[in-house]
Amino acid sequence: MKKFFLTLLATLSFVFSMAQDHDRRVVIIMLDGLRWQELFDGADTAYVNNRKYAVNPEGIGKLYVRDTQEERRMALMPFTWGFVRQHGTIIGNRRQNSLMSVSNQYHFSYPGYSEILCGVADDARITSNDEIPNPNISVLEAANRDPRYQGRVMAFASWGTVAYILNMSRSGLPVVAGQYSKTTAHTPSEREAFLDGMKADMVDMWGDATLDLITYHYAAEAMRTLKPKVLYVGFNETDEFGHHGRYDHYLMAANHNDDFIGRLWKQAQDDPFYRDKTTFIVTTDHGRGSGDQWVDHGRQAPGSEYTWFMAFGNGIKPLGETAGNGPFYSKQIAMTVARLLGIGFTPTGGVKPEPIPVIEE
After folding, report:
1. Pairing assessment for the beta strands 175-177 and 153-157 based on DSSP bridges
2. Is residue 10 over pLDDT 60?
3. DSSP assignment, residue 299?
């Protein structure tokens, strides 16, 4: 009898530990069109000192130009290089032969977002940035079908097309995306109502895309009041300013996004609901060209298939900045999220890419 109870106790302990292991929260953050060159090298003086791309080279230089590559990237993205490198894993520095890229053939936004979130490069059906409902199931939708996460999956994005990429009408996910959407909260908080009003009063600069500051505050408020277990946050300004050839604003947007990531992480660590249970995944949907083609991406801009990936928090190996690894692909990210959440997820087509090997087993 004693042996039976010891065996039962061991079994219950194992089940409890497994349940605890999968009582995770995951925050997925995307920085649209941020090149690996700026992430790993910091500000490029060839662009900073070119008045075609920077209105005030002296001013932007004081903010982000330093003598060494290490100092430049720290000035641009201090949370990434001060915290994530020490506590998480960063992949994609091609100068160190750390290889990350998209596997879709288009190298622009909708195909990139869909590949990341759905785990498959659907080159036959995802061929443009048009606002068409995504036929593929995302890992967010799969999580929302799991009883542990149902009703606790939320998405906030600066680019309105994300609502279509996540197929809001089919998935039932609450998505606040773009210039014209409002909070999905049944009873908006004072801050959510304020943010809705701000968007209504703003000038429409880029079509259905809003400022990253607003997206950040929606996400932070949701974490404070609604406690999603799976949260998607999509920032967009790096891509918008890139297309407009404003390297100065592109750098400022990258710096602000890094700060928003750090603030969301701090908020998670200050909240018992998230503390020590939360994993952050940060990536980009595509890269950009080089030379004067840095303003563009797609098959006509070589190098825009190159991306990067970082992860930190609960269950992530602290490998730091990696070298001599890969190639890894964006389609592996959805399976990485599924593994972290402990959910069953099979991408459209039935092929399951391997998760990126950053999870502590």
Report:
1. parallel
2. no
3. T
CB 83 within 8 A of CB 262: yes
- Which amino acid is located at 59 in the chain? G
Amino acid 71 reads E
Tokens of 189: 């908080």
Whole-number Å distance between alpha carbons of 344 and 51: 51
Do the bridges between strand 153-157 and strand 230-235 make them parallel or antiparallel, or are there none, so unpaired? parallel
Q: Is 80 exceeded by the pLDDT of residue 9? A: no
Report the DSSP beta bridge partners of residue 328: 100
Residue 305 is encoded by which pair of tokens?
């298939």
Largest interatomic CA distance in the chain: 82
The single residue listed with the structure tokens 């190159």 is 306
Contacts of residue 135, defined as CB under 8 A and 6 or more positions apart, other chains included, come to 122, 125, 167, 348
| Helix residue spans in the chain (DSSP H) | 2-21, 36-41, 45-48, 57-64, 69-76, 78-79, 85-87, 109-118, 139-144, 162-165, 168-171, 190-201, 212-225, 237-243, 247-270, 332-341
Q: Is the pTM of this model over 0.85?
A: yes
What distance in Å separates the CA atoms of residue 91 and residue 310, rounded to the nearest whole number?
6
Structural tokens at position 297: 């991406």
Among 18-27, 169-178, 313-322, the least confident range: 18-27
Residue 76's contacts (CB-CB under 8 Å, 6 or more residues apart) are: 38, 42, 43, 64, 251, 254, 255, 258
Tens of pLDDT, residue by residue over 170-229, are 999 999 999 999 999 989 999 999 999 999 999 888 889 999 999 999 999 999 999 999
Confidence category of residue 2, pLDDT binned at 50, 70, 90: very low
Q: Which residue has the tokens 């997925």?
A: 28
Q: Hey, is 86 helix, strand or coil? A: helix
Tracing tokens 């092929």 back to the chain, one arrives at 351
